[in-house]
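Batch job 17 of 40 flagged for manual review because the log was empty.
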Amino acid sequence: MKALHIFLITILFFSCKNTDTLFEKTDPQKTGITFINQIQESEKENILTYEYFYNGGGVAAGDFNNDGLTDLYFSGNQVENKLYLNKGNWQFEDISLKSGTAGRNGGWKTGVSLVDINADGWLDIYLCYSGLKEENLRKNQLFINNHDLTFTEKAAEYGLDDPGYSTQAAFLDYDLDGDLDCFLINHNLKNYERKEANIMRSERDKFAGDKLFQNNQGKFTDISENAGIKGNPLGFGLGLMVSDINADGYPDIYVTNDYVEDDYLYINQKNGTFKDELRNYIQHTSYSSMGIDIADLNNDQLPDIFTLDMLPHDNARQKTLLWPDNWNVYQSQLQNGFWHQNMRNMLQINQGNGSFAEIGQLAGVSNTDWSWGTLLADYDLDGFKDIFVSNGLGKDFTNADFIKYYDQVASNGKNLSLPDYLKQMPSSETKNYIFQNNKNLGFENRQKEWGFDEAAISSGCTYADLDNDGDLDIITNNLNETARIFRNNAADQKTAHNFLKIQLRGNPGNTFGIGAKVFVKNKEAQQYQENNPTHGFQSSVIQPLIFGLGTFSGENEVTVIWPNGKSQRVPANSGQKTLILEEKNASTTTTAPLKKEGLFEEINYLSYQHKILPVNDFDHQIMLPCHYSYHGPKMAVGDINGDGNEDVFICGSSARKASFLIKSADKFIVKTADFLEAKENQDAVLADFNEDKFPDLYLANGNYRNAQVNENTDELWFNDGKGNFSKGNLPPDALNNSCVKVLDIDNDGDLDLFVGGSIQANKYPFCEESRLLKNDGKGNFSPVSLGKIGLVNDAVVTDFDKDGFPDLLVVGEWIPPLLLKNNKGTLSSENQPESLKNLSGWYNAIEKADLDGDGDEDFVLGNLGINTQIKASATEPASLIYNDFDQNGTIDFFMNYYIQGKSYPAASRDEIAEQIPALKKIFSDYQSYASATIEQFFDSQQLSQAQKREITQLNSVILENAKGDFVVHQLPVQAQYAPVYALALDDFNADGKKDILLMGNNSRFRLRIGKVDANFGIILLNKGNFMFDYLPQNQSGLDIRGDVRSVRKIGNGLLIGVNDNTMKYYRLRKNK
């Protein structure tokens, strides 16, 4: 009986505690946390009259009675706030009435922040207000802790009873004077036109503008204007984080703004002022930026930034969501002074050199639907921070069918009541997201495995170790539903990881050590956290910092740098669990680390500016994946004037003639090629075509948007040896060419040419023919058609089969690498190596070098990368279906790619209906299109007659020459940050092995793909055996921004062609 009794108790225990998932949702009836943020719509208060009606409330976690247990405080929009006292063993007591923290009757409560504002060692509560309320109902409140679980409201006494439309506050010691100041974000309620933006930027709005309050001996003073804080009515502040972004020892501030207004990145100027330097650090942001968190996600001791938007993961939600995807509106936005924005989450990885690489799509965290709060923390205690996202919306006013209904009612002159409108507006109840860090800049969705597989509408969120077991539990403030508490079982699992909990005790004035930095280092890893309380949407937490240690059980070295610059370093064994560090024991004064010299340094003596005439290719073909008119500049290198120096030819455009860079001593002198007309030069080569020993010039011309023969015909120019050129004869081609390569195809001693065919003008994805131009030895060329082999972008000449005749390896869009074997003067694409057949990609560049030292040439292929919405594999390929489906004389094409295991069209309902109006009848509303596939567009006969291309892989890769075949080698993840358009293979670190430089980016994809610009010049160091290590940007010295289209190594430097931008020159440092 005793054994049976023990067995029954065991069964009961495990039935109550589900450890199959990392987290388990607790029962409100058992915990006592029954708070519900109940929202009631009315004619006066609803989402149509107040767009932030469903933003929800916040939650704060902190120990209010100093008993060692973390308590919880929830804010309610229309209901009273609730304060729950942690009694231990997952039992909480509602002390809201006794504590006096319920909030103001009739007020709309929003964000909540914790702070020891009077430096007495007890946590106080700062509560924000907003909504369609009178000014006296919007004054923020400050609840001072009376040390007996009661609080007294004293916001006016402290000068913090601001009546703005407030979202959240953060407390920080911005001037490092030892006390805590306050930064407050507000938002606008007024509508405005984009054209008014320039005027409004200089205005100050006391209710909508953000504010900085300086603490002067317990009295807070608004110093916003003098401190450089924007206070205009453009701001719609939703998210706020404090972090030392540039590692100079001073706290900086990031503010996320909803709608079209830019985010703000306030860099502390160390003199009492801030400067918004967003554009210096960030290349693009979320469009409707919402929640934000900042933490070191890749353990490089640099803070990374994660901002939220509302792009759904599933196809159905994407197809029913109204996107800001009009290119002309986007350009108008830029012209009116706004920054680049796309509607998706943005993961900004700190490069350590003042720039951030945005890789949210590569990392797998860009699409989490209507997202509010994010929490970056190590939930499984493996030593790497994971990501939690709360999301959902009570009423979705961006639903395309609702907007259509709303517009139709208005146009018909009907006068419906607001409740009637609201009935047509759908709710957006979704699952919260949680992602596990894969330790290689990627994240795996663990909603199901970690216990977040139930739908909800969650906004405010924070984390805390509620049971003091060493792992972080998650708390969410839900809409019209009981708040959820998710218990973390990481510390209780059989394979539990070790952890270290660090409690900070600061000096008087900042008793909780806000702003301190903590580093934990051991033989296996190093980690970094900042002690800043504002985390999660409208939420905050003050508790000991927790560092997961994985399976490591040895000694750790813990370093804390306090806000005053002093530091201390102590050992801590992994079994120690808790470490208390006090600022009074710090003695060493730290200074900002000196900036290390990179491998390269930028030399600013080039004044050449590439130019492209503004054009919208989407006006020609609405479904284009990107602009194709924004090409170049490509370059050719040769000694054109016979002085023994390498000169450079830079391809021109219709906006600027081509130019030469004439080498003179250690500089280049820009000389316009006046003998040329301003045309769209796609590529060029300098080589001796008439055997006079002087490099001549061949220009491959082309133009996506213009099919004029005189503009597209290639050009041949003979050099007299002194840099003077006379025109040679070429047969007119009128083709849109992409690239040109020099080779002696028939081994007759003269130089022939391969010319790659690009897109037929205005007829994507139809391609031009590629050609071989045979030289008679005097510079007279005869064309030999190679057929329409694809949308060729680049090629290399190589004797692949070692028969003494040069072959070609050609790459392009929607085709696999193509080996053109030379059969003694003729090229053939027959009998392609098997290894190439499954490598169909979106290739933009190829380069060759002996990477493994075996005496033959290997190849690096620059592909689209994996940092876009487009995904492709052999089992789930991206596809392109095209034909003149509606028989109107123009090509119709539809790109498709897989989402959650099924292939869907990339385009929206509006786009396909504009392409083929008949499709609008098939899909009469957006909901009917939400699940549509290409098979529903056309009948089987139409599809069978259409042409189809596929992409099966998007990674930039190495092809090893394996004596008759190719072996594919993957490159580090950084090589996949962005499309690669330019390559240089050289021994950059002088270790005897060829390294790889990849450059590219594309800022002119259609808006649904967005700006992809995370490549600042990626150097991969060759470690042998086709293993390459990424050289971080702060070590390489490269920081090239924009769309790079060419790179040439000239001497000990790199000449870099940036599209529609200034050419760059970087030189190897002499001591390197």
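Reviewer: the log was empty due to a logging misconfiguration, but the result itself is present. The two ends are 79 Å apart (CA to CA). Unflagging and moving on to job 18.
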